[in-house]
Amino acid sequence: MPKKEQRKRFSRPASSSPRRPQRQSERRVREQDPNTIPSYLVNHLAQALRMVLKLDGPADVLLSVYFKRNHELGSRDRGFVAEAVYAALRHLAGIRWRMAPAVPERSPRLAALVTLASLYGMEALDSRDVGNDRKALEAILDKKDSDADPATRAELPGWLYERVRSQYPDHDLFFKEIATGAPLDIRVNLLKGKRDEVLEQLKDEGKKVVATPISPDGIRFLDKPGITHWPLYQDGVIDVQDEGSQLIARLVAPKRREMVCDFCAGAGGKTLAIGALMRSGGSLYAFDVNEKRLQGMVPRLRRSGLTNVHPIAIRDEHDKRLGRLLRKFDRVLIDAPCTGTGTLRRNPDLRWRLSEDELHRINEIQKSVLESASRLVKAGGRLVYATCSVLKEENQAVVEAFLAAHPEFHLLNASEVLEGQGVKVPAEVKDRFGPWFVMLPQVTGTDGFFGAVLERDPDAPRRRKPAPEAEAPSEETESVKAEVTETAAPVSEEQKAE
Ligand SMILES: C[S@@+](CC[C@H](N)C(=O)[O-])C[C@H]1O[C@@H](n2cnc3c(N)ncnc32)[C@H](O)[C@@H]1O
């Protein structure tokens, strides 16, 4: 292999090219070898890295601020800069180690050159952009990965590396997966379309799509098109949702006329999937402490055609008003706040912003939310605890501690719950994880997800009531809805208008 080829250290995103068309204004400034990356893109990458490497917010948010401030950048240029920023974040430990004693956040231009040379090779850089940094850059690129410590090679902070390493025998495959991006999955809204028909339509339109292998509702794009302007999206036939997240909604297995609660609903990814499984029947309460996130659900709900969802902002898991809903729900989903370590392919910056202290803080909230939300489950009802974390501390350990303190709940086999709906759960998932539902990038090709299905013993016999009126919310729950709706005015007002 020629030496320059050896220097391409990062796998290159399929969509990006080092040869960007130069803008007219740039050409006027100076002529440049057309086979190299235009200088203005190197400069933008350095400035974007200066901002994003502060790690004081999610990379996608910081990047969109950067692009707003630099609105003269066209969409292809934005794509190029974004891909390079994400590559730098995926390989930040390695870049840091190579650049030492220089530090990427203080030398973002050098970090930009290292990133671009690692993606496209030194020959893609204009010698005037490299300037006096050539020697330093060559020394940086010549360092051998095998000399770095294992956590650096895994591109994880030490505390997280140790946990993943000790927990998963196939940890090396996990490390390999988190060095790549994630595909774009969508869920077909069962109220408005059939998966196979939408799949055919997309294929006829020339889109590169396949059915998701496990979720019966999903479609996977082999590239990553922008879909939000498509009629299928605007009309609510499809929504963006990772296959793993679709399956968590299926773990809830709601029936059409039931009372269901999505306790940590956020912007409603799983709420929408559960509502569609309920065919918009029954009542679906969507709680969250973050009113702004709940508001993000409103346009999605409008597109989806669901009319059974009640988004309600709560103060916290001890909100007094929840007292009126005790033992009222057939199903409760807790999509708990978590470290998000299952989504590192999508959110490569997350690992550098997390800490062990943060993990412990989140862990306390998880236990407390599970404790409180479990009280809403009626006798014989189901409780699903889920996270997008790959850490046992946030998953099995939380549920095991809860079960030890609550003999009135027992664990169901999550794979059987899915198979009862015709979902083909991979044998490896069943064999490795028993009653738990665990998805991992290296096993299922999805984000990492955890789900546990618990059932409250049917200690109190269900009241026999004539269907269907009897299954409608009681006056008491209606009054809670009205009361809480007032406090969550911005969400619920829009909701009422639908
Ligand atoms: C994993 S996210 C939910 C994602 C969402 N279910 C989805 O599918 O798009 C966890 C959510 O829990 C919420 N949360 C945090 N603490 C909470 C609490 N004490 N009670 C209820 N929700 C809480 C956060 O605001 C966040 O939206």
Automatic annotation (TrEMBL):
Q: Where is the composition biased (Basic and acidic residues)?
A: 23-33
Q: Which residues form the active site?
A: 388 (nucleophile)
Stored Pfam families:
Methyltr_RsmB-F, RsmF-B_ferredox
**SAM-dependent MTase RsmB/NOP-type domain residues:** 174-457
Positions with biased composition (Basic residues): 1-11
Alphabetized UniProt keyword annotations: Methyltransferase, RNA-binding, S-adenosyl-L-methionine, Transferase
Q: GO annotations under biological process? A: RNA methylation
The record ties this protein, via InterPro entries, to: MeTrfase_RsmB-F_NOP2_cat, MeTrfase_RsmB-F_NOP2_dom, RCMT, RsmB-like_ferredoxin, RsmB/NOL1/NOP2-like_CS, SAM-dependent_MTases_sf
* GO molecular function annotation: RNA binding; RNA methyltransferase activity
- UniProt region (Disordered), positions on chain: 1-35, 454-498
Q: Has UniProt tagged this entry with the keyword DNA-binding?
A: no
Supply the name of the protein. NOL1/NOP2/Sun family protein
User: Of which family is this protein a member?
Assistant: Belongs to the class I-like SAM-binding methyltransferase superfamily. RsmB/NOP family.
The entry's S-adenosyl-L-methionine-binding residues are 288, 316, 335
Sorted alphabetically, which Gene3D superfamilies does this protein's record hold?
A: Sun protein, domain 3, Vaccinia Virus protein VP39
